[in-house]
Design brief:
Number of domains: 2
Number of strands: 21
Structural class: alpha+beta
Strand content: 15-25%
Largest sheet: 9 strands, mixed
Radius of gyration: 23 Å
Distance between the termini: 44 Å
C-alpha cells in the first residue's frame, strides 16, 4: 500500500570488466572480502597477477612506498592501461546468473543503486549489524573511487526474474572453486533497461548482504559531497549534467526478486566458549525451551540434526533438541531462532560467541574442544524475510546466510564520470 511512495533509484552504468579475450575470468574472480581468510587470500592472489582479491583485499607495496589503499588504486589503473580491464562503451545493466553445481540458480541484475537520503529511504536493512570497523572499506573506496563488489538487494516487486533471465550465450562466464557458474549478460535496448529500472524503483529494496558496504557508501557520499560537491561524479550539483550511473550517490548493487525459487537461505549457527567449567547449559536452555536428548556427539547424530535443520544444542556430552516453549517467541519479540536463543545467551555468564555457517564445522569444533557448545539454528524462510521487510523490521545479527555469493571481479563500477574522473583516458 505504501509502495507507491517508494523511490529507490536504480541506474545503468558503464562497467569496467576484465577483457575475457585476454583473461580467464575464473582465474581472477574472488569471493566477497568478508568471507576470505588469510590463507584463501594468498591462494587467490597466486592464481593470477590481476586477481580481483589484490584490490578487494590489497597489501601495501613497500618498495613503491604505497600503503594498501594507494596500491589498490595503482593496480586498478595499471590493469586499465594494460587493457586487462576495459570499460564498456555505453551505460548498461548486467543480468547475472549464479548456478550451483547442484543446479540451483539465482537470477538478478547488476546496476547502480541510489544511496542519498531521498533515494535510500526505501532501501531497507534486512538485519541488525554487529559493531565492525568501517574505516577499512571507506579508506579503500576513497583511494580507488571504485565499487569493487556489489551489495545484494532484494526487490519486493514480482516480475524482475522474467525481465533478466536470458537464454542467450553469456557475455562472460566464470566457474568458482565450489563449482558454481557465474554468467553475465550486457543488457542493451532502452526499453528493457527502462522496464527494469522502473520495476526496481516501484517497491522497497531489502539489503540482503553487504550492510556495511551500503553504510560505507552512504558515509562516502556525505564526505565526498562535503569536500566539494563531487557526489554527482564530478559534474557539479546539476544531476541532469552528470554521466548516467556515475557519482558517489550510487553504489554497485546486485538486485534479485524476493522469491522462493531465487533465494537459497542458510542458517548461521552459534558457537559458545569461555563459559565457567561445569555450567549446566541444558538447564539454562530449559528456561525457554523443552530440551530432549537426541543422542551422543557422533557423526550419525550430528548428520541427522544438520540435515534435518533442527534447532539443537551440541555439547561434548551429547546433543539435545530444543523446542521453544509457549511464550518464548513473545518474550524474544520474534519467532526467529536467533532471537529466541539470544534470550538464553543474555542469561549466561560472560562468554564468547562465534558464528559458523557450516553445522559440520561447528560440531567438529565442539568435538575437538575448540568450543564448549554449539547451537544449531534453523534457516529463516523467504516468507519471514518478506514479512519482516514489509513491517520494516530488522532481524537479529547473523540470522541469515545467502548463497551462493556474487563474485568480485564480474564487474567494477568507477565512481566518477569516465570522461572526468581519475580513470579518464583509460577506456
Amino acid at each position: 500500500m505504501w509502495y507507491a511512495e517508494c523511490v529507490p533509484r536504480f541506474e545503468p552504468f558503464r562497467a569496467v570488466r576484465y577483457d575475457v579475450h585476454r583473461v580467464d575470468l575464473s582465474a581472477v574472480i574472488a569471493p566477497p572480502y568478508d568471507v576470505i581468510d588469510p590463507d584463501e587470500r594468498r591462494r587467490l592472489a597466486g592464481r593470477h597477477s590481476a586477481n580481483s582479491v589484490r584490490v578487494e583485499l590489497p597489501e601495501p607495496d613497500h618498495r613503491a612506498g604505497l600503503d594498501r589503499y594507494a596500491h589498490a588504486a595503482v593496480q586498478l589503473r595499471d590493469w586499465l592501461e594494460q587493457r586487462t580491464l576495459v570499460r564498456d562503451a555505453e551505460p548498461s545493466l548486467y543480468a547475472y546468473r549464479m548456478t550451483t553445481a547442484a543446479g540451483m540458480a539465482t537470477n538478478g541484475v547488476l546496476g547502480a543503486l541510489g544511496v542519498d537520503d531521498a533515494d535510500a529511504r526505501d532501501i531497507l536493512p534486512h538485519e541488525q549489524t554487529l559493531p565492525k570497523a568501517k574505516s577499512d572499506r571507506l579508506d579503500l573506496l576513497s583511494a580507488t573511487r571504485c565499487n569493487l563488489s556489489p551489495i545484494w538487494g532484494l526487490s519486493m516487486t514480482s516480475g524482475l526474474t522474467q525481465l533478466v533471465v536470458s537464454d542467450d550465450v553469456p557475455d562472460a562466464l566464470a566457474v568458482d572453486e565450489d563449482g558454481t557458474a557465474h554468467e553475465l549478460w550486457v543488457l542493451d535496448g532502452s526499453r528493457r533497461i527502462d522496464a527494469i529500472t522502473e520495476l526496481v524503483g516501484s517497491s522497497p529494496v531489502v539489503v540482503a548482504d553487504g550492510h556495511h558496504r551500503f553504510e560505507t557508501a552512504k558515509a562516502f557520499f556525505a564526505a565526498d559531497t562535503a569536500k566539494g560537491g563531487r557526489g554527482t561524479g564530478g559534474a557539479g550539483p546539476d544531476r541532469l549534467s552528470q554521466a548516467r550511473g556515475a557519482g558517489s550517490d550510487l553504489v554497485l548493487a546486485f538486485v534479485v526478486e524476493l522469491a522462493e525459487d531465487q533465494l537459497h537461505v542458510g542458517a548461521i549457527h552459534r558457537g559458545l566458549s569461555g563459559l565457567p567449567d561445569g555450567i549446566d547449559l541444558t538447564g539454562a536452555f530449559s528456561s525457554w525451551f523443552d530440551v530432549t536428548r537426541a543422542g551422543d556427539l557422533d557423526e550419525r547424530t550430528i548428520t541427522a540434526l544438520g540435515e534435518s535443520h533442527a534447532l539443537a544444542l551440541v555439547m561434548p556430552s551429547g546433543c539435545w533438541l530444543l523446542a521453544p516453549r509457549d511464550g518464548t517467541a513473545e518474550a524474544a519479540g520474534a519467532d526467529l531462532d536467533s532471537a529466541m536463543v539470544e534470550l538464553v545467551r543474555t542469561e549466561l555468564p560472560e562468554h564468547e560467541v562465534v558464528f559458523r555457517r557450516d553445522w559440520r564445522r561447528a560440531a567438529r569444533a565442539v568435538a575437538d574442544g575448540t568450543l564448549q557448545a554449539a547451537v544449531l539454528i534453523r534457516p529463516v524462510t523467504v516468507h519471514q524475510i518478506a514479512d519482516w521487510a514489509d513491517h520494516r523490521r530488522r532481524m537479529p545479527p547473523k540470522t541469515t546466510y545467502f548463497s551462493p555469493k556474487p563474485r568480485t571481479g564480474m564487474v567494477f563500477r568507477t565512481i566518477d564520470d569516465p570522461e572526468a574522473g581519475p580513470f579518464a583516458g583509460t577506456r
